[in-house]
Amino acid sequence: MVSIQQFVQNSGSAFVCLGLSSLAWLGWTDPLPAIAQLSPPVDANTLQNPASQRLLQMFSTDIQATVAACAERGKVNLAAGAGSDGAVICGDGSTQSDISYASYLDTLSNILAASGLVGFRTVVEADPRVTPEMLVTVFSSPEGTATFYNAIQSVIVQSQLLSANAEDSTALLTNEVVGKLRDNLRSPADLEGLLGTTEQYVQVVDNFCTAPGMSVDQAQQETPGLTPIQLYAICVQESGMADEILQLVN
């Protein structure tokens, strides 16, 4: 299996990149119009910063393996759908039988969405001009959703998580992420409660975000009341990624 560190170096980390793109908005002088000017700072050094490495190492080996599926076989071809056994199909046409298509798409989009939400939350805390209500309004409009769609699609392409010419796969993943962001920004309370209660946060850090980690189902049993996206968001927050990128953009 490809190590998660090698995956970051060779394929990039779309979920770290999405967090970066979110945090890049801290430089807004006029938040809403500036969204359209978003150009995420994605490069090898950023992908390998200490916080992103900590984040990647927090997850269980099963989650790490899912994220790194097909990393040395042309990456996952999402547009091809699932193989006959339900597994992901790699860019070279082979299948990786130990990783299901549904699990790959769900896991990756959850981590991407969680990273974006943590980025949004950091923006709100750092800049009083940006409010949860503002983000909810943007995601409730077709124009706002389209703007975020383009930004997220750009981040995924630059991260090299999928093949450079995999336009259909990129569109599929982008749609999934945008849908989850929209579902988790239906009201200001969604962003405010993203990281759960203090007790829930500590439990998730101890059980889900600390090696050897556990599955999402196990984590939800240990800490009821949290969604998979909230679990991943807590790990993103705990990794310190938001704080590190905040220093870069200030």
Task: Write a concise synopsis of the structure shown.
The chain is mainly α and 250 residues long.
Major β-sheet annotation: 2 strands, antiparallel
- What average pLDDT do the residues reach? 78
What proportion of the residues form beta strands (DSSP E)? under 5%
Strand order of the largest sheet: 1-2
Principal-axes geometry comes out as globular
Q: Could you tell me how far the N terminus lies from the C terminus, measured between alpha carbons in angstroms?
A: 38 Å
Count of the separate structural domains:
1
Number of strands: 2
Rg, Cα atoms, Å: 17 Å
Chain oligomer state: single chain
- The helix content, as a percent range, equals 55-70%
Which structural class do you get from the secondary structure elements?
mainly alpha
Low-confidence stretches: 1-47
Count of runs of 4 or more consecutive helical residues:
15
The SSE order reads: HHHHHHEEHHHHHHHHH
List its traits:
single chain, 250 residues, mainly alpha, 2 strands, 62% helix, 4% strand, disordered N terminus
Can you characterise this structure?
The protein has one domain. 62% of the residues lie in helices and 4% in strands. The protein contains 15 helices and two strands. It has helices at 4-11, 14-24, 31-34, 44-47, 50-58, 61-67, 101-126, 132-139, 142-159, 167-183, 188-192, 198-207, 216-222, 228-239, 241-249; strands at 87-89, 95-100. Helix 5 (50-58) runs antiparallel to helix 14. The termini are far apart. 43% of the residues are buried. Residues 1-47 have low confidence and may be disordered.
